[in-house]
Design brief:
Helix content: 25-40%
Structural class: alpha+beta
Distance between the termini: 46 Å
CATH architecture of the largest domain: Orthogonal Bundle
Largest sheet: 3 strands, mixed
Number of helices: 5
Number of strands: 5
Order of helices and strands: HHHHEEEEHE
Amino acid sequence: MSDANRMRMTKQRQIILEELKKVTSHPTADEVYQMVRRRMPKISLGTVYRNLEILAGLGHIQKLSVGGTQKRFDGDISLHSHIRCRDCGRVADLNLKLESHIETEAARFTDFVVLGHHLEFIGICPECQ
């Protein structure tokens, strides 16, 4: 696929993006597929997977690797943390005020150029308690 094609906001990408922005459940690709099929019944699972990767690569959505399970996707690209249920895998947003200098400190203690960070908390959700 050419770069021009990857950059274009196709109808499929637009619908995937709209559906992701409607929810806070951090769905898997399979769940996004089920959501999108309501509006585009003929879309394939492979098309949804491919477009999720493209949207994540373009910075329109976040791809979350949580707990070594299936990838999950977040339509909220603002800087925020997540909390994951150890038992069922549910992921929720966690808006905490973090120390603004955390990335500067990480760079200071290593020889890395810090590009960003992801913070995930692990707990047990109310349904699993």
